[in-house]
Design goal:
With 732 residues, the protein is α/β, with parallel strands linked by helices. The protein is 31% helix and 18% strand. The protein folds into 3 domains: 297 residues, Glycoside hydrolase, family 3, N-terminal domain (TIM Barrel); 179 residues, Rossmann fold; 115 residues, Immunoglobulin-like, CATH 2.60.40.10. It is built from 21 helices and 26 strands. The strands form 7 sheets. The protein has a 6-stranded mixed sheet, with helices on both faces. Strands 4-3-2-1-10 form a 5-stranded parallel sheet. Strands 18-26-25-20-21 form a 5-stranded mixed sheet. A hairpin with a 6-residue loop joins strand 25 and strand 26. Helix 16 packs across helix 21. The chain binds 1-deoxynojirimycin (NOJ). The site of 1-deoxynojirimycin (NOJ) has 6 residues, from loops.
Length: 732
């Protein structure tokens, strides 16, 4: 714990060493009241066209009409990343009648100039302080370039790795997802940009993992699994929300009054604005609930969508819809109020324009790169390490690094802040060279024409070179078109010709360490049986390869944990740890039990799992009281020992199960975790606070119920935690 505190303190010092940046947050009390009065005054002065303008979000590129900014017909822009261009649109605002500042948005999903691991690869660290720091620097760099709004965090829970956007979320679990959502929201907003929690809601559950497809989610599951990360982001102060592309239980999320208005505003009291996703208002036609764009615009606005991202439907039709009385002026005013409210709370009125001369100095600072390195280190998961092949032994005198991915083309650059600063990404062979003794020979062969691994450049030469070394490090995975939006897959093996190369490398008889950078948990069943070690990352960003080299050489003891179960076969999907029990629990060999004829039930690597170069053991679980009332709490503690040879970090996890309740409850539910640093041989007591109020579940009407009865508690280093305690929930 002490070391963790020191690390957190150092990170904070690094953060405060750089020039101050304005954190953004909701104002309260008199300040908030004064803002409402200013909005009233502004609304009174606005024409219909100007009101609609505030709801119109347009993007850099073809079709962008800067004159719409001058005429007050555009309230928001996106995808401007070069400060001089940001300045140009800000100047255009000054030429408009009311000079209402623009909200300037961008997907700074995993960084701006410094790249941190993709969100799934940050969730793997199970370290909320570090995740918050990564978001802080992402927001801060973006803010320095004049951006004041980001389309992050994506908090969609997904249990289906076929979905390409798996990479942008925090995995399969509601609790981990909520903790990560809150950390990322706090970080970005502290860095100076308003967050957009997205995609509301159910996008991670699209049927069969096919992007943009329909989601069917029972109410109890919606509330227990999919909504908690949104709630957590709201509680952490997110200023905006993005509606999802998909239909939820038959209603397109972009027109879902129940979610956008009744739940979000009504039950949860959200005061910010909701944006559509890219063009999703006009897509209401394709969804089959609007005849034309005018009807789509009306349905979206009345359901609760305030801003039209890249659809032009509000811009073209909303004024007419109001004029003819199909959309009440009241509804339009309310949407405009929400947009203006965010702009006021963000402090955009009166804020100086971006300073393009200052921006480059704030990119890729030492402090940001330090956080990127630590996030990439803590984000990598050691899935397999047969015979302790890693860290690389002294006896290894030659190493082959194989695979184009070892030398980055471009670490998944989503934004292109041209000319803003260095974008230095160290190649893996260079990073190893710096860390291994000088007499170790390092050979590098890309083998593929590109990172994608779809085509060989030189298979035979790569295999021959590898065969002449003591250890093969193959860096492979998913890249290019295989990751992100619209990258759904039905086969979850290595894309292209990578498996063929992997098999040829294994056939050399030399030990193979497979280093993976993927978009999702792949099916690694073959690899798990044939390679010596697997180090999994989800695209680690600017410092990805230095972090990998630190782990391979033992400078850093791996501590990443699985945030989403790795299936053994695609046919198991969805496979996740918090399943409900069945009436016929798995009994291998027993035909009429809940099993497959051709595959095991359990995943290859379960949620929460991850190896270290050390070993940790758990003992002596204690609960501060044998029972607690429904509004009470207990402290659960357990002793964790580092029984291995090296100092290392362990992610201590607490799961519960309610064996008897009025609704079937999951076999395991994560309710707490903490990352602890333990020296070799050291033992520490880890404590968790368990409130009864967190042990309930939602029923099918969306009502949250905490029931009396036994609660089993499991403590350990993965969702298979075996050390057990229990507590009884009582009525009084
Ligand atoms: C579509 C994506 O679904 C969304 O997440 C993203 O923020 C927007 N495009 C803007 O790029």
């Amino acid at each position: 714990m002490a070391l963790r505190l020191v690390a957190a303190f150092l990170l904070l010092c690094l953060a405060s060493a750089a020039p101050a940046q304005q954190a953004v947050s909701w104002k309260t009390g008199r300040e908030a009241q004064a803002i409402e009065r200013r909005i009233d005054a502004l609304l009174r002065r606005m024409t219909l066209k100007e009101k609609v303008g505030q709801l119109h979000l347009s993007g850099r590129g073809e079709g962008f009409d800067i004159d719409q900014v001058r005429s007050g017909e555009m309230g928001a822009v996106m995808n401007f990343v070069v400060p001089t261009e940001v300045l140009a649109v800000q100047k255009a605002v000054r030429e408009s009648r009311l000079k209402i500042p623009l909200i300037i948005g961008l997907d700074a999903v995993h960084g701006f100039s410094t790249y941190f691991p993709f969100p799934l690869g940050q969730a793997t660290s199970w370290n909320p302080e570090l995740i918050e720091q990564a978001a802080y620097w992402s927001g801060r760099e973006a803010a320095a370039a004049g951006i004041n709004w980001t389309f992050a965090p994506m908090v969609d829970i997904t249990r289906d790795p076929r979905w390409g956007r798996t990479l942008e979320g925090a995995g399969e679990d509601a609790h981990l997802g909520a903790v990560v959502a809150a950390a990322r929201t706090r970080g970005y907003q502290r860095g100076g940009v308003a967050t957009t929690v997205k995609h509301f809601v159910g996008y991670g559950a699209v049927e069969a993992g096919r992007d943009y497809n329909t989601a069917w989610i029972p109410t109890s599951q919606l509330f227990d699994v999919h909504l908690p990360p949104f709630k957590a982001s709201l509680e952490a102060g997110t200023m905006t929300v993005m509606a999802a592309f998909n239909a939820l239980n038959g209603v397109p999320a972009t027109a879902h009054h129940g979610m956008l208005t009744d739940l979000l505003r009504g039950r949860w009291g959200f005061r910010g604005f909701v944006t559509s996703d890219f063009g999703s208002i006009t897509e209401l036609r394709q969804h089959g609930i609007a005849r034309d764009d005018a009807e789509a615009a009306r349905k979206a606005l009345l359901a609760g969508i305030d801003m039209d991202m890249m659809g032009d439907a509000y811009h073209k039709h909303l004024a007419d819809e109001v004029r003819v009385g199909r959309v009440p002026m009241r509804a339009l005013d309310e949407a405009v109020r929400r947009v203006l409210r965010v702009k006021f709370h963000l402090g955009l009125f009166g804020r100086p324009d971006v300073d393009p001369a200052a921006a480059p100095r704030l990119m890729q600072t030492e402090a940001a790169r330090e956080v990127a390195l630590q996030a990439a280190r803590e984000g990598a998961i050691l899935l397999r390490n047969a015979d302790d092949i890693l860290p690389i032994r002294d006896s290894v005198k030659s190493v082959a690094v194989i695979g184009a991915m070892a030398v980055p083309e471009d670490e998944r650059v989503w934004t292109d802040p041209a000319g803003l600063g260095r974008r230095v990404i160290t190649p893996l062979p260079d990073a190893l060279r710096e860390r291994l003794p000088q007499d170790v020979r390092i050979v590098f062969k890309p083998a593929f024409t590109k990172n994608c691994g779809t085509e060989f450049a030189e298979k035979e030469a790569a295999v021959r070179a590898a065969a002449e070394t003591d250890l093969i490090i193959a860096m492979m995975g998913e890249d290019c078109t295989f990751i992100g939006e619209a990258a759904s897959r039905t086969k979850l093996g290595l894309p292209g010709v990578q498996q063929e190369l992997l098999e040829a490398l294994v056939a050399t008889g030399k030990p193979v360490v497979l280093v993976l950078a993927t978009a999702r948990p792949l099916v690694l069943t073959w690899a798990s049986e044939h390679v010596a070690a697997i180090l999994q990352s989800f695209h680690g960003g600017t410092e990805a390869r230095t972090a990998i080299a630190d782990i391979l050489t033992g400078r850093y003891n791996p501590s990443g944990r699985v945030p989403m179960s790795f299936p053994r076969s695609v046919g198991q999907v969805p496979v996740y740890y918090s399943q409900l029990p069945t009436g016929r629990p798995e009994r291998p060999q027993e035909r009429y039990s809940s099993i497959y004829m051709d595959e095991l039930n359990e995943p290859l690597y379960p949620f929460g799992y991850g190896l270290s170069y050390s070993r940790f053991s758990y003992a002596d679980p204690r609960v501060s009281a044998a029972s607690m009332p429904l509004d009470g709490a207990v402290e659960v503690s357990v002793d964790v020992t580092n029984a291995g040879p090296r100092d290392g970090q362990e992610v201590a996890q607490l799961y519960i199960r309610k064996p008897v309740a009025s609704l079937s409850r999951p076999l395991r539910e994560l309710k707490g975790f903490t990352k602890v640093m333990l020296k070799a041989g050291e033992r520490k007591t880890v404590r968790f606070r368990l409130e009864a109020a967190r042990l309930g579940a939602h029923d099918d009407s969306g009502r949250y119920v905490v029931e009396p009865g036994e609660v089993e508690i499991y403590l350990g280093g993965s969702s298979r935690a075996a050390v057990k305690a229990q507590v009884r929930l009582t009525k009084s």
